[in-house]
Amino acid sequence: MARHADDGAGQRAGVAELRLAAGDPALVPQNDALAEDLPLDRNQAILQAAKQVGALLKRTGHPFALAGSVAVYAHGGAQNLQHDVDFAIRPEDAAAVAEALREAGLVVDAPPEDWLLKAECGGQQVDLIFELAHQPVTAELLARAQELSVDSVHMPVLSATDLMRSLLASFSEHHCDFGAVLPIARALREKIDWDEVRRACGDAPMPDAFFYFLERLEVIPPKEEEQR
Q1: Beta-carbon neighbour count of residue 64 at 10 Å?
Q2: Could you please report the per-residue DSSP string of the chain?
Q3: What interhelical angle do 160-169 and 205-216 show, nearest 10?
Q4: Torsion angle of alpha carbons 30, 158, 191, 197, nearest 10°?
Q5: Backbone torsions φ then ψ of 49, nearest 5 degrees
Q6: How far apart are CA 45 and CA 40, in angstroms?
Q7: CA 76/CA 188 separation, integer angstroms
Q8: What are the residues facing 42 on neighbouring strands?
Q9: Distance between CA atoms of residues 66 and 86, nearest Å
Q10: In the prediction, which pLDDT does 42 show?
Q11: What's the half-sphere exposure (Cβ side, CA atoms, 13 Å) at 160?
Q12: Centroid of chain to Cα 6
């Protein structure tokens, strides 16, 4: 979500076929439709992967939360999904979660980056992230997750406040895409505790500039003068 290992992955060709994950049918939830009837739309393919992996993660018993663009969609944002599915897990659970997914027939790899694992489900990339915006995923963060429906499958989803906080905390001189975050701020603004996000970001220049941007666009109310 807030950090991506391969920004070029979004340039991959579209999905020609949505393949169900192999493995024990009792572990990997199967779609009742025949393979040839599965949707070819990329957004639907990503949602299908999110549902399958979310169901598997629930069976592991380890705490987790959906993150990234699918989490934004679950909170009511637009169905304009990015190139992968993101799940937040605790660092201490990474090995056990990876083993459980492998037992279910998914391919799980450890990339050079030391803050995530990568899996594949139905031809879609799934990132298992244990560090968001340079901070380890904690039990407290996951405890704040909300149980939401993701295309009819219920699973824990990062709170809208934590989603926005991690996005803004990732801003730097080398990565500061206001255009990508603005639609999310607009869509989820009533669900976000903006005072908490401001406190978490402190006086960091890039988030502070984004807050000013949101104020001028009347997405959020202006900061009280005495707080400036």
Answers
A1: 24
A2: --S-S-GGGGGSPPPS--PPPPS-TTTS---SS-GGGS---HHHHHHHHHHHHHHHHHHH---EEEEHHHHHHHTT--S---SEEEEEE-GGGHHHHHHHHHHTT-EEE--SSTTEEEEEETTEEEEEESEETTEE--HHHHHT-EEEEETTEEEEE--HHHHHHHHHHT--SS---HHHHHHHHHHHTTTS-HHHHHHHHTT-HHHHHHHHHHHHTTSSPPPPGGG-
A3: 120
A4: -160
A5: -65, -40
A6: 7
A7: 7
A8: none
A9: 6
A10: 86
A11: 19
A12: 15
| Residue 168 to residue 137: CA distance in whole angstroms | 16
pLDDT value at position 157?
Answer: 98
- φ, ψ of residue 4 in degrees (nearest 5): -125, 135
Q: What are phi and psi of 170, to 5 degrees?
A: -85, -10
pLDDT along the chain (228 residues), means of 10: 44 34 47 48 92 96 95 90 90 96 96 94 95 92 97 96 94 90 96 96 92 96 67
Token readout for 2 is 């807030």
Say what the pLDDT of residue 7 is: 45
